[in-house]
Specification:
64% of the residues lie in helices and 0% in strands. The radius of gyration is 19 Å and the shape is elongated. It has two domains: 69 residues; 58 residues, 434 Repressor (Amino-terminal Domain) (Orthogonal Bundle), CATH 1.10.260. The protein is mainly α. The longest helix has 25 residues.
Length: 154
Amino acid sequence: MTVQTLEKKVRLPPFAEDNAIYTGLIRRYPPRPIETKQMHKDYSLLAGRLMALLEDELPASDRKGIERYLKVMIPLIRAFETEISPIGKAEPEDVLRFLMEQQELKEVDLAKELGGQPVVSYILNGKRRLTRDQIKRLSSRFHVSEASFYPSGV
C-alpha cells in the first residue's frame, strides 16, 4: 500500500505541525515501540540528552518541541522497561548511577552539588547516604521526584 492509498482510505488530511524542532525530532528519531535492548539504550540516551538540553536557555518554541517529543517517547521507554524487567524499589545509589549513565555524567560532574568527588564515590558505593539537601539538588538537576532518592522502606 502506498502513502497516497492510505490517505484515501483514512480520509483525513495530514495533521498540521508548526514546531520545527518537534517535527525534526519525529523525522530523525521516529517514535516507535521499543523492542530491543539496543533500541532502549539509544532512545534512553536520546531522552537523557534532550532533558539535559532543557536545562539550558532555549527559545520557548524549541523547549516546547523537545517537551512534546519527550511526552511521546518516555511512555514508550517505560513500557519496554516494565515489560523486560518489572522494577521493584531501587536503592538511591542505583537510581543515581542510572541517571548518571543516561546523561553520560562522571562522578566529578556531580562533585560540586554533592560536596566533592569522594562524597559522590561514597554515595555510589553505598558507604554514605544522601542528605535531604543533596536529594533536593539531585531531584532538581535530573527532574525526578525526591522520593526516587529515598531508601527502600523510608
